[in-house]
Predict the structure.
Amino acid sequence: MTTQTNVAQNGVNVAALLGAREALSRAPEAARFKWRATSTWLNGTHSRGTVEGFFGLGGEQAHRQRYQFDTDHPEIFASEDNGATPVELVLVALAGCLSAGVAAVAQKRNIQLNSVQATVEAPMDIQGILGIDPDVRNGFDRIKVHYEIDADASAEEIAAIVAQSQKRSAVFDAITNPTEVAVTASKV
Amino acid sequence: MERAGIIDVVVIGAGHSGLAMSRVLSERGVEHVLLERSEVANSWRSERWDSLRLLTPNWLTRLPGYSYSGSEPDGFMSSAQLVEFLSNYAKWSAAPVITDTTVTRLVADGAGYRVSTNRGDWLCRAVVLATGGCSQPLVPRLAEGVPSRVQQLHARAYRNPEQLAPGRVLIVGGSATGVQLAREIQSSGRPVTLSVGEHVRMPRLYRGRDIQWWMLASGLLERRIEEEDDPERARRVPSPQLVGVPGLTLDLNALRSQGVEVVGRLVGIRDGRAQFSGSLQNVCMLADLKLNRLLGAFDDWLDRHGRSLGVAAAERFTPTVLDQAARLELDLSDEVCTVLWATGYRPDYSWLRVPVFDRRGQLKHDRGVSAAGGLYVLGLPYLRRRKSSFIHGAEDDARELGAHLCDFLGVARRAG
């Protein structure tokens, strides 16, 4: 256990997060964000996704720099494997979101993290996407996330941090609950 | 408009909170009336299911100056028994209850308030809202998607299983009401699917004592709202998974061994199919962890204060066991005959025309004291203390708010 005088250093500015929570509860309009990504098809199953700007706090915002993510399929699908498969990026997003939550919750509880390793595994029967069996869904059968955490805390405290991070995770919510998705197209 | 009277204080609602406040005001010699839409303890007469028992044992059922004196201190009152208890209390305390009087409007009027009812207007200096937190059944908007051939009802309209068609029942909500109805309906031969979001798991007995004994003795029920980091969240904590049967624990494990199917929170209904969240495992983990923290706090308290109390050894309960792959969808049209909403209540202040509401339309108050001078609210969950909405919790809140109210009347008098 950490003593009262030590302050955990997980690199999370909890005071800023709590301040934002306080401020946004009084100005709920500023809490309405809009996330965006664009994706350009390159060739075959290879696309390049880009994120740069988003909307929040009442105005246009930008990342420190533009980020790009190549997606493709592996060679066993007769593709060129120029990047992660889109479903793998979903797993990366889930782990990234949960781990951010783990750090923030640990910081708030003044628990020093030494290492946090997430392993995500998601079985999928590709008879679904190949249209072989209509009873098989396209998506994952289930997702398993396992955390190995070295921290100055009891096993129960660590379990509580991981549980709380799920409770506050956007990606966990997006995956576990249905979301209306509207896809449109226009000819250019 | 007919004028019913002029008085210092009007208390609205003759349930346990209103009666407790009335008693406190009488002790202080404050003139008041208690307006009741029907008769004393009305919601306990007409809005409860047949088998309902209180979650607190009889020995803990008490109001200012009055407590349970029967022969079963460890029993739990039925609705009818509570009606009798509250009616006797009203008589004993000579509460000035005016029955069959429905408040239709409450507005500021001069230095005080005008309380309009179906039987004339009352003019008063102060008002105490004691209508409670359970005036209106809450049903989520997604209920609109339930196919029309499926019977739907809120727990407030539920009386007993015979009311329901013989097929599967989807119960939405895993707090006290949901788990109790799941047990009863599954026992009646109707298969139950129970949809569970965040919940509070609690054993009826811990180390041989009723959980309410621990809550009271350890001081947990006395915890004040101002001690909470997040008071709004503390006030939203759902009722624990308890049933008023001595020694009977009613958690998800007990229900599953009875045959109840446990699924995640209901998050959508599409084309007649109910969709359940994939977060069931996490909400159960959260509940198990919180339960263990609670029991740990009891153990610590006992170590510090009560080694001689002679309770049994510390124990921990089996973690919540779930199906490997809980169902994520349920075809309501084909597989379900009844959807039973155990999704809670909200207060109804639609008649309150005083600007004391926040942006989301909720009554703003500081531990029962509204920003409008002389307007008070009583009997809401965690209003001042964790025990605030319990019957035995009414006394301390009523005494403190009563004192505040008397100060206000004194000030108002001097100013007038």
Notes: The radius of gyration of chain B is 23 Å. Chain B has two domains: 3-135+347-415, 137-341. Chain B has ten helices and 21 strands. The interface with chain A takes residues 198, 264, 267-268, 270, 275, 277-279, 282, 285-286, 289, 292-293, 325, 359 of chain B (CB under 8 Å).
